[in-house]
Design a protein that fits this description.
The chain has about 290 residues and is of the alpha/beta class. It has helices at about 30-40, 55-65, 90-100, 115-130, 145-150, 170-180, 210-215, 220-230, 245-250, 260-265, 280-285; strands at about 5, 10-15, 15-20, 45-50, 75-80, 105-110, 135-140, 160-165, 185, 235. It has a single domain, classed as TIM Barrel, CATH 3.20.20.100. Helix content is about 35%, strand content about 15%. The strands form two sheets. An eight-stranded parallel sheet has the order 3-4-5-6-7-8-9-10. Strands 1-2 form a two-stranded antiparallel ribbon. A hairpin with a 5-residue loop joins strand 1 (about 5) and strand 2. Helix 1 packs across helix 2, helix 2 (about 55-65) crosses helix 3 (about 90-100) and helix 7 (about 210-215) crosses helix 8 (about 220-230). The radius of gyration is 18 Å and the shape is globular. Bound molecules: NADP nicotinamide-adenine-dinucleotide phosphate (NAP).
Length: about 290
C-alpha cells in the first residue's frame, strides 16, 4: 500500500516529505530548494509545507526546476492562526502565489482556534467548490474541535495532521478520527527536527526497544518507526536533510512488522509532546508571524 484514499476519493501518498525548518526555521533559500530537489530525485512526490514555514517559495522553485508534471505531485499547505477567519481566502491565495501553483492538493487549518473555525472552514469550502484545492483537512484538532466542525460543515474534513510518534501515540484521538473516516497524518514522526532543540538521544529513534527491533528487521530506527505508522494506514511526514536519511525513509518496503512488535512500539507511549499542545498553542502562535 503506497497511497490511501481520503473520504472524498482523493488519493494521498502515505509517505510525504516534511519541509519545516530545513536549514533554519522560516528559511526560503536555495538550500531548501536543493534539499527538496534531492528528495524529488529519490522519488518523493508528496510535500508538506505551511505559510508559517516561510519556505513556500523555495518549494515552488523546486517544483518548477524538477520538471515533474504537476499532477504527479501532492502538495499540502496550511492556514496559520493569525490568517484564520476573514483572512483565510487571501492567505490561501498568497500560498498559491508563493508556490507558483494553480491549485493545492490539500489545505489544512494549522491549529484549532474555535472562535474562528466556522468562518475559516466555510472559506475553505468555497475554495474546494471552486476546485482550487482537492481536499480539505485539519491539523492539531482535538476531538472537541472535530465535533464542533461536524455541527456546520458541508464538506467533511479528510484528515487530521497531528504530532504522533512512539512517545505520543494519541490512541483515543486516532480511534475517533479513524471511526469517522478522517485519515491520520503524523507530524514529527521521528520525534521532531532541530527546531525542538531536543537531542537525538532523547528521541524515539534512540529508544532501546526501537533500536533492538530495527536490528531485528535489518533497518534503521527511523525506517522502523515510519513502517509502524504506514502499516497501520497512517500518513507520515518525516523531514530529512542528510541524503542517507532521505533515501532510507523512502525505502519502507520489503519488510513487515509483526502484530506483536507493533504492540511493543505502541507500548512506548508516554504522552510526551515535543511540539505545542493544542490546548494552549493559540496565544503563542499569534506571536509567530507569517513571512511574506
Ligand atoms: N502540523 C503541524 O503543526 C506540524 C508541526 C511540526 C511539524 N510538522 C510537519 O512534520 C514534518 C516532520 O516533523 P519534524 O521536521 O519536526 O521532525 P521529524 O521528521 O520527526 O524528525 C526530523 C529529524 O529526524 C532526523 N531523521 C530523518 N530521518 C531519519 C532516520 N531515518 N533515522 C534517524 N533520524 C532521522 C532528521 O535528520 P536530518 O535532517 O539531519 O536528516 C531530523 O533531525 C515537518 O517538516 C512538517 O512538515 C507539522
Amino acid at each position: 500500500m503506497t497511497t490511501v484514499t481520503l473520504n472524498n476519493g482523493v488519493e494521498i501518498p502515505l509517505l510525504g516529505f516534511g519541509t519545516a525548518a530545513i536549514g533554519e526555521w522560516q528559511q526560503d533559500d536555495s538550500y531548501v530548494t536543493e534539499t527538496i530537489l534531492k528528495a524529488m530525485g529519490v522519488g518523493y512526490r508528496h510535500f508538506d509545507t505551511a505559510s508559517v514555514y516561510g519556505n513556500e517559495r523555495a518549494l515552488g522553485r523546486a517544483i518548477r526546476d524538477s520538471g515533474i508534471p504537476r499532477q504527479e505531485l501532492f502538495i499540502t499547505s496550511k492556514v496559520w492562526d493569525s490568517e484564520q477567519g476573514a483572512g483565510t481566502r487571501s492567505a490561501f491565495e498568497r500560498s498559491l502565489e508563493r508556490l507558483q501553483l494553480q491549485y493545492l492538493d490539500l489545505y489544512l487549518i494549522h491549529w484549532p482556534a474555535p472562535a474562528y473555525t466556522r468562518e475559516t472552514w466555510e472559506a475553505m469550502e468555497k475554495l474546494y467548490e471552486e476546485k482550487k484545492v482537492r481536499a480539505l483537512g485539519l491539523s492539531n484538532f482535538r476531538q472537541s474541535d472535530i465535533e464542533q466542525i461536524a455541527t456546520f460543515a458541508s464538506v467533511r474534513p479528510t484528515c487530521n495532521q497531528i504530532e504522533l510518534h512512539p512517545y505520543l501515540t494519541q490512541k483515543p484521538l486516532v480511534d475517533f478520527c479513524q471511526f469517522h473516516e478522517i485519515a491520520i497524518s503524523c507530524w514529527s514522526p521521528l520525534g521532531s527536527g532541530s527546531w525542538s532543540g531536543v537531542a537525538k538521544e532523547d528521541k524515539p529513534v534512540a529508544d532501546p526497544v526501537i533500536v533492538e527491533l530495527a536490528e531485528k528487521y535489518g533497518v534503521n530506527a527511523g525506517q522502523l518507526i515510519l513502517k509502524w505508522d504506514i502499516q497501520q494506514g497512517r500518513i507520515v511526514l518525516p523531514k530529512a536533510e542528510s541524503v542517507p536519511n532521505i533515501v532510507a525513509n523512502f525505502e519502507l518496503y520489503g519488510f513487515e512488522l509483526s502484530d506483536e512488535d507493533i504492540e511493543k512500539i505502541d507500548g512506548l507511549n508516554r504522552d510526551h509532546r515535543y511540539g505545542a499542545d493544542p490546548d494552549s498553542a493559540y496565544e503563542d502562535n499569534l506571536n509567530v508571524k507569517v513571512p511574506d
